[in-house]
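Quick start: read one record
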Amino acid sequence: MSGAVTIPTHIGRTMHRQQTFFLAVFVLVLSSCGRSAAERAALESAVIANYVAIVHSSYEDSLTRTKQLQVAISAFLDSPSDATLRITKERWLAAREPYGQTEAYRFYGGPIDDADGPEGLINAWPLDEAYVDYVEGAPRSGILSDLSTYPTIDRDLLISLNEAGAEENISVGFHAIEFLLWGQDRSVEGPGERPYTDYVEGEAAHAERRARYLAIVADLLIDNLEDMVAAWAPDDPENYRAEFTAMDRSAAIQNILIGIGVLSKSELAGERIFTAYDNQDQEDEHSCFSDNTHRDIIANALGIANVFTGRYVRIDGTSVEGLGMNDLLQAVDPQSAAELASLIDRGLESVRAIPAPFDRAIIDPDSRPLVLEAVYALQDQGDKIAQVGTQLGVTINTALPE
């Protein structure tokens, strides 16, 4: 694995046995009569340690898959064809799976979305297609067509133009790549159908500029994901992981719960599902060009479950697992732990029940109730996360940060 560390299967099994042993020890301790402050502290520390390990592993997997996407983009640009474009699209879809699960690590001012965080350069949406390239009815729209204002396409320019003037003025990140691969989604049943000839000089206007643009945004995405891997890497006393594990345990637990609580109730249930449901507009869906929104939603919900259970399944099939928020809550209020576990199961079931493609589900009379059920399930889950935060001695605000 270039730029990351793959856990071989035999090592993953060893880690699993060790973590299972530690879990058994904690269960034994916590089931005995009385729980000392030291026992509670040890449990919290174990939950935090496993959380940061999961965060690092999932960013590593995101980086690995995105590097595979970058390789495919290079091959496609070297030899544009239907076949190389199809492979590149498959790599983009594959990269979205681990990245979608990392959304559970946001909303508390961590390295992904603090004042200098790169979240807006990685996953900002919705993207105004006409800001980047031609669209139906406007063949000369976008940065790519404006040679007088932007004679040279380079990295600094594209960063400076991201969200310049309006939130939907997205110029870089996953969704800029998505649009450059799929083009506008004008199909009733399927995704966008940008032809590979858009990247063949002489076949399409600005093919060379478009190729340069795509290569630059892929490189930038790699750089930003490398920063996230480094921020959460073990054995670095100067990075964010060291800061996170050194902070007051209650503050760390609060951050963990804020991440999954805000994602559940406000970002996923609200911004990513209900807004599109309410407006019945595909322009409000997350991955509208590729019709991958249903998978984005599932990955986000899975990220919440990962944090709660303390288990993340890596792209190589191994797992990182140990004590999770469920174990901590079990020690404080087993009934609440069971209730939240049930709500998380319901949340996953409800998002998996949304028919694909999402842009049809939000307008189809038979599918809309399933979409709304997912909204309700995720809202209930978010409310319960806030409630258990109180039981754990911290305050959780599930509203999106200003």
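The CA atoms of residues 111 and 283 lie 29 Å apart.
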